[in-house]
Each structure stands twice: as C-alpha cells, then as structure tokens.
Structure to design on (671 residues):
C-alpha cells in the first residue's frame, strides 16, 4: 500500500520528527518505507529518516507492506499532518 | 589468498624464534583499517559491537545529566538524538550484517555503515539542518570506535593460548595487561631498537621484530606466524616445510642458549687473560629481578622506576618507592642496585595536559623532577630508606649541565639532613651517579667526573641527540646508527675521563646488550656492562673468548674507519669468528 503525503511543518524531518516517525513505524509489523525523489529509505530507522533530508514542502510516498499496512500508513499520514505537534 | 605464505622483513630487536598464532591488538590510535576476521570470530565481534554501542549510550546519558545542571541545555536534544541513533535497530542490523557476511571487524563495519550516510548527506545543502548533521555522524562514529578499541585493549588481558602479539606499537598500559606466560613474541608496524615493545620483549626474553610498516593490515588474528628475531624475518602463514625448518632452528637456538647459560653461568666474567668485566642487568619491571641471578648477572646497573608512575596522575608515595627498592634488595641480597630516578616526560604524568612541541627536548627526567620537588623528594626518601638494607646507589637521568647535578644533589642532601634529624637510617656513603645520555654531558665528562661518584652511558638517547635522529621515527630509522664514529668518539672520551678520575663508567644503553659491539667496547676500555638479563650469557660468551689485547686492536681498527656501515661490517666479521651461532 502506498500514499503520497507532503511534509508541511517548517523544519521538515529533523531530529524530533524523525524520532517520532521511527517510533510510530516500529509499532507496526509491516515493513515501511519512505520514498523521496526515487530514494527509498527504511522508515523504522531514525538514521535513515534523518539522511532523507526532507524539508518543508517535500513530497514523500509512504510505502507499507504487511498485515497492518493500512493502519500503518494512516497513522504515519496523520502524524505528518499534525506537523508533529510543533506549531 | 588466505593461506598464502608471505615473508616480511623488519628490524630484529629481540632475538630468538617463535612460532604461534597471531593476536592482533589495535592501537588506541584512531585508524580503521579494512580488516577481515575469521568466520568463527564473527559472533564475538558482534558481541563487542553491542557492548561498544551500549557503552556509548551510557556515556551520552551521563553527558546529558551533566548538561541539564548547566546553562548549556540547548545541546541536550542533540545528544539525545545521538542516543536515538545508537539505539536504531535497523542501523545496528546493517553493521552486524557487514560483520557476519563480509567478515569485517566491528570498527570497520561501523565506519563503513556510517560513512554511507555521511556520503548521502554530503550532497545536501551543507548549511541546512541536514547538511550539518554530517559532523554528528562523525562524532557518533568516533565514540563507538573508541569504545570498540577500548574493548580490544581489554582483550589483551584475556589471551588464553600461546600467541604472537601483532600491533602498531605497544604502549605501557597494554603491556601491563599482558599475560607474560602466553605471549611468545611481538611484531609491530612501528618502533625501533629502543621502542617500548623492543625493551619489553628483551626483558621478557622473547623475540620481537619491529618497523614492519603495515603488518597489522597484513595479518589477521589466528594466522600462524613465525618470528625470526635473529634476522628480522617474519613469515605469515608458513607452509609445512617452513614450519618444520623453523622448528628445528628454534630448537637448536634455544639449546645453544641453554648450553651457553650452563657453560658460563657460574664462571667469573673475565677475558681470556683474566681481566674482570662486570655485567649488571637493566630492570624495567620488578618481576624481572629474579632473572638476574638466573642469567648470571652481578646486580642491577639500571633500575628503571617508571613503572611506579604508570597510573596516570597517581604519584607513588615514599612508602611505595621504599617497598619497591627494598624488595629488590631482598631478592638480590648484597648485590649492587643502581636506582635511576624518574625518567619520563611531563605528558606521561599528566596526559594531555601540555603537549610539548619536542618532548624529547622538553621537560622530562631530571628536569621534571626538579620542577616537582615533592614528587622528587618522595622518591629520594624511598631510595635512601631502602639503602639501609643493601648496596643501593642513586642515578640521575638526563643531566645536561653541572648545575642540574648540583641542584639534584643538594635536594638529596636536604632529604638526608631531614632523615638524620628524624633518625631514619640510611646508607651514609650512598653513591650518586649520572646518566651520560646528552652529548653536552659526554663532551664535558672531565668536569662531571670531579663531582659524581659514577656514570652510566645511556646510548639510546646519546645516539638520538648526537645524530639528531628521533629514535621512534621509523622513516629515519636507517640514520639511527649505534656505531656512528661521532658516537664512538663521545663514548671513548667518557671512558677515558672516568679512568683518569678513577670513577667507574658503565654502559646501560641498548648498545651494551648488542653482542656486535662487545669486543669493541671492551677494547675501548669499558669494564661495566648493563644489559637486559637474557643477553648476559651471550655477552659473557664473547668476553670470555677474547684477550684484552685483541679487543684493543679491534678498537684501534674501528677508530680508523669512516662510517657506521664499515664499522658494523668489520665487527660482524670479527665477532662471527668467535660466536658463529649468534649470527646464523
């Protein structure tokens, strides 16, 4: 399952959002990837998320594969849309 | 590739032959060679990784605690991010995979993994938040690798089978951790005849070959190694024939040594025409003292006391000094013991405090003692107290001018006065000597002789300072020439002045223990040698095989030659005739 989302918070996926995403992603069984400009990274890894260098306005495809992929994509999408409770 | 026999040549610094498995010790230096491991060691390597990650996280937690108390709280989120990265299970799984599948060391795997991310970030705008994360990743890399290397240093104390230690260069901390019964030999990337590894190897009586350049990259732990400490050859993964050949050579050499020992141990050390020569031993660590009588030494010509100071920042008390020297007396009874006061640089006492530009020309040895009088007095009192029980003398290192000697002596006199007042017994006629290891003191030996009781020539430093060759710099190792005509002339002058003023002159540098120079030194008039205990039989063998006239002739012949190379060649040919086995 895939879904396109836009990073809307000002500072993009920096340390704290990366930690939040990884923490959330690790709650699901499904394998979860973020794709940016054709580069695919493991969304369960804070290291990978940080090196994605996704700033404000970046389009990301959330890719999930596994029994709970639907819930995973929904949860991550809503986390991103809340702008990580930053603003 | 793995089992190909390879031969490397280095500098032989401690003789003998050893055949054993390699045990690779990573130096504390921050280098991450692309090094493979054996598949059976992969699990252990992963264990080390886990421990290093855990330790790194613990370190960071402590840092956060400290930061929270201070006003620099804004860095807490950064440190916290480092912790989160170190806890990243996906990151770890990648490192583990490199260890298990590609069979690389943990530190190389860590580096390889993290560098991948650094590379990814290097294409990002370097002023952005992500671009500046590169330094954080480097920081994490350094922390984990430092923890990994510390694990490896600890490993050295856990050697379980007979091994040959392979390292860049040993440092004293690592040496202290070694199980001396398990180590069969040393081979190192760096070093020279007077490096720490060389001194330790000779003290332990095991072969060592140094200055092998990148031997630590060529060898993996578990490889079979042959060290030929007589010729400087190192063979990695020898074939069956070579192993057989060396087993025979090794057996022959050790039986030759054993025979020498049995033949000479209880004979007086004198030339064929009955001129007596004294051989003392150089002692680096207390456990070597029993070797002296075992090898037929007549006392301690140089008791190095640096081991007492090895714990960084912790100075030994007067009592610790006293106990150490008293113990030597109790083993050697009434034999002579010459204790040299502290001979290290300030950097070793307070690591990292002041990095001197030229430590060899800096505040070390007697200079350091004279600037730290409480420390110096504690040592002097310890020596004096022990002198009440045996034949102990005091020797000051690195004397470069008469004032330094006078100053050191006046402090000794103050300490003596104080002890007399307090009725603490010591040897009233205790002898005070100096090391001649700086050209200035050799050149003005005539002046020094009037005030000192004895001298000991320290050739390692004397050569280094005379020739302006850093003895630890392997790039210029070929310029470090023991028999350089200038060095020989200095030594000859010192010996002559000693004779003129009737003061005993000893030599305690490595030159005294190198049998290539024994005949020459006897011919030049040297009567007291101080060497590492294990070479005493060889030196004695040569001394008992010559007459004084023969030795004098050799010396005369040497003094008309122009270069160290010619001199060594001549001496090799000459000595080979006396003791061919030593040059096989």
């Amino acid at each position: 399952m895939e879904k396109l989302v836009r990073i809307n918070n000002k500072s993009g996926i920096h340390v704290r959002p990366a930690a939040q995403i990884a923490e959330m992603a690790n709650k699901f069984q499904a394998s979860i990837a973020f794709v940016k400009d054709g580069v695919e990274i493991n969304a369960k890894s804070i290291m990978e998320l940080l090196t994605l260098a996704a700033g404000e306005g970046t389009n990301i495809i959330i890719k999930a594969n596994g029994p709970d992929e639907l819930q995973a994509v929904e949860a991550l999408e809503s986390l991103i849309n809340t702008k990580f409770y930053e603003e | 590739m793995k089992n190909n026999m390879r031969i490397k040549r280095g500098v032989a610094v401690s003789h003998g032959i050893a055949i054993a498995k390699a045990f690779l010790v990573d130096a504390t230096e921050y280098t991450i060679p692309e090094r493979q491991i054996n598949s059976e060691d992969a699990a252990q390597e992963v264990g080390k990784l886990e421990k290093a990650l855990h330790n790194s996280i613990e370190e960071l937690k402590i840092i956060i605690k400290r930061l929270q108390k201070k006003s620099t709280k804004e860095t807490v989120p950064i440190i916290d991010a480092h912790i989160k990265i170190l806890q990243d299970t996906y990151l770890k799984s990648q490192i583990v995979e490199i260890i298990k599948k590609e069979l690389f060391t943990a530190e190389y795997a860590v580096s390889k993994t993290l560098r991948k991310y650094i590379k990814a970030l290097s294409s990002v705008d370097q002023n952005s938040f992500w671009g500046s994360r590169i330094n954080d990743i480097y920081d994490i890399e350094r922390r984990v690798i430092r923890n990994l290397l510390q694990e490896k240093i600890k490993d050295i104390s856990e050697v379980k089978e007979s091994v040959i230690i392979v390292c860049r260069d040993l440092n004293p901390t690592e040496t202290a951790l070694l199980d001396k019964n398990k180590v069969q030999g040393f081979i190192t990337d760096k070093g020279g005849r007077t490096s720490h590894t060389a001194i330790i190897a000779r003290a332990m009586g095991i072969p060592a070959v140094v200055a092998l350049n990148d031997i630590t990259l060529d060898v993996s732990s578990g490889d079979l190694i042959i060290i030929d400490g007589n010729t400087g050859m190192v063979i990695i993964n020898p074939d069956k024939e070579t192993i057989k050949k060396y087993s025979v050579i090794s057996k022959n050499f050790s039986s030759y040594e054993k025979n020498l020992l049995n033949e000479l141990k209880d004979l007086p050390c004198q030339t064929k025409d009955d001129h007596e020569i004294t051989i003392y031993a150089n002692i680096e660590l207390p456990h070597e003292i029993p070797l002296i009588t075992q090898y037929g030494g007549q006392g301690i010509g140089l008791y190095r006391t640096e081991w007492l100071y090895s714990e960084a920042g912790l100075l030994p008390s007067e009592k610790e000094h006293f106990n150490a020297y008293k113990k030597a007396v109790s083993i050697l009874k009434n034999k002579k013991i010459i204790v040299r006061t502290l001979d290290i640089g300030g950097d070793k006492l307070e690591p990292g405090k002041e990095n001197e530009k030229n430590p060899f020309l800096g505040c070390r040895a007697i200079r350091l003692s004279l600037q730290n009088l409480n420390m110096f007095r504690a040592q002097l009192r310890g020596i004096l107290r022990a002198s009440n029980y045996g034949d102990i003398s005091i020797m000051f290192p690195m004397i470069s001018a008469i004032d330094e000697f006078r100053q050191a002596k006046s402090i000794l006199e103050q300490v003596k006065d104080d002890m007399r007042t307090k009725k603490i017994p010591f040897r009233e006629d205790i002898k005070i000597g100096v090391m001649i290891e700086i050209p200035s003191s050799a050149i003005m030996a005539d002046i020094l002789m009037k005030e000192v009781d004895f001298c000991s020539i320290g050739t390692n430093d004397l050569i280094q300072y005379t020739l302006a060759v850093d003895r630890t710099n392997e790039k210029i190792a070929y310029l470090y020439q023991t028999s350089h005509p200038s060095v020989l002339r200095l030594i000859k002058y010192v010996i002559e002045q000693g004779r003129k003023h009737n003061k005993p002159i000893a030599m305690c540098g490595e030159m005294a223990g190198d049998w290539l120079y024994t005949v020459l030194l006897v011919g030049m008039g040297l009567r007291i040698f101080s060497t590492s205990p294990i070479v005493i039989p060889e030196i004695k063998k040569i001394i008992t095989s010559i007459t004084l006239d023969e030795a004098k002739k050799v010396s005369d012949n040497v003094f008309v030659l122009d270069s160290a190379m010619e001199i060594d060649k001549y001496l090799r040919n000459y000595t080979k005739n006396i003791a061919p086995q030593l040059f096989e």
Residues 69-81 of chain A form the longest helix (13 residues).
